[in-house]
């Protein structure tokens, strides 16, 4: 009888603990819903816009905006930032690569390291910026074969296979409901001079380096990219800076607070690889305007946004040095930007 009462007592305790946990979860969900309701239906238009942009930039929770707004309201808050394009063609003459970036010694080498990793931060974000003086060291790594029958690889795995010093995520990929396996790239992929994915007659939002190590950003067909001698390229967007002109010069690009990845190049050829942590208590994330500001402050004359959100993270010396926002750890993807070791 005593043992039966003891078992009953233990059962009651476990039951009560489970009830407390369930009640707590329900209260947390209700609190989050009410918080979003206050933001969504409150008087601040800017808060509404940030909320809509933030959730709509992720394939996993984009439906949250649909809870509170009509399609017309969502379109108004989103604006055109996700479809931002430019007809301006990258002017390669604005980038003059200094002789020392090709491996020649320079008196400035001690104060201008070949590779420099710096911290960046703002009121809502923190992240890492990697500066690579020699642009020939930056190229696209691929996961392997592409298509529905294949899956991508994690950036750390690709960096290890290529023997790279550093890496960040690169182009977009098919990601229905946020559970894509990274096997099918979006747009065109060129890696080390070879066309890996895409066609000649289709127009793409290209982000890539030519054989002279100049970064090109903007819309072009696959054939135009090949004619330019593009050696390594992926597709995503929007373009952030072209020929020294920020695309938010006349109108904010906006966007929500989210993890971000971007690539840029300065007038002396230095490549800028940027990753911003997001969806963290100490780093909500950055907007497109924030990314433009960082790129301009570091001298970028051309820059473009890469795939972000749960894909964003940076590898350095075989370690993940930023915070990946994915609940399941770094995701599998088809491409990454790699940095070859110093010679």
What does this structure look like?
The protein is an alpha+beta fold and 343 residues long. The protein contains 7 helices and 17 strands. It has helices spanning 2-41, 45-56, 63-68, 71-78, 155-162, 222-227, 288-297, and strands spanning 115-121, 126-132, 138-142, 166-169, 189-191, 194-197, 203-210, 215-221, 230-235, 239-242, 245-246, 260-266, 271-276, 300-305, 314-316, 319-320, 335-339. The strands form 4 sheets. The protein has a 7-stranded antiparallel sheet with strand order 1-2-13-12-14-10-11, with helices on one face. It is globular. It starts with a helix and ends with a strand. The model has no long low-confidence stretch (mean pLDDT 86).
Low-confidence runs of at least 5 consecutive residues: none
> What amount of the residues lies in strands?
25-35%
The coarse silhouette is globular
- The run of helices and strands is HHHHEEEHEEEEEHEEEEEHEEEE
Please, what is the average pLDDT?
A: 86
Largest sheet: 7 strands, antiparallel
**How many whole angstroms does the radius of gyration measure?**
23 Å
Class by alpha and beta content: alpha+beta
Please give the number of β-strands: 17
Ends: how far apart? 78 Å
Helix percent reads 25-40%
């Amino acid at each position: 009888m005593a043992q039966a009462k003891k078992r009953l007592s233990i059962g009651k305790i476990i039951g009560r603990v489970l009830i407390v946990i369930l009640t707590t979860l329900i209260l947390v969900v209700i609190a989050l819903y009410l918080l979003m309701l206050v933001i969504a239906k409150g008087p601040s238009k800017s808060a509404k816009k940030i909320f809509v942009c933030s959730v709509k930039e992720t394939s996993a929770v984009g439906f949250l905006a649909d809870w509170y707004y009509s399609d017309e309201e969502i379109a108004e808050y989103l604006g055109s930032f996700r479809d931002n394009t430019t007809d301006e063609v990258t002017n390669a003459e604005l980038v003059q690569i200094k002789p020392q970036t090709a491996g020649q010694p320079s008196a400035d080498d001690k104060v201008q390291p070949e590779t420099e990793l710096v911290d960046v931060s703002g009121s809502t974000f923190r992240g890492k910026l990697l500066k690579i003086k020699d642009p020939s060291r930056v190229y696209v790594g691929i996961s392997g074969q592409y298509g529905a029958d294949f899956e991508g690889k994690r950036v750390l795995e690709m960096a290890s296979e290529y023997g790279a010093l550093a890496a960040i995520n690169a182009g977009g990929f098919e990601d229905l409901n946020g559970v894509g396996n990274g096997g099918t790239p979006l747009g065109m992929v060129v890696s080390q001079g070879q066309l890996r994915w895409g066609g000649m007659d289709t127009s793409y939002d290209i982000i890539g380096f030519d054989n002279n190590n100049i970064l090109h950003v903007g819309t072009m067909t696959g054939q135009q990219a090949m004619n330019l001698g593009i050696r390594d390229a992926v597709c995503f967007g929007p373009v952030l800076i072209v020929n020294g002109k920020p695309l938010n010069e006349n109108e904010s690009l906006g966007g929500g607070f989210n993890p971000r990845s971007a690539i840029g190049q300065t007038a002396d050829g230095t490549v800028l690889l940027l990753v911003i942590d997001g969806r963290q208590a100490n780093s909500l994330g950055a907007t497109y305007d924030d990314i433009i500001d960082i790129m301009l402050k570091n001298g970028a004359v051309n820059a473009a946004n890469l795939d972000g959100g749960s894909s964003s993270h940076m590898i350095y010396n075989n370690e993940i040095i930023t915070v990946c926002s994915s609940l399941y750890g770094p995701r599998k993807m088809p491409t990454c930007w790699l940095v070859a070791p110093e010679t």
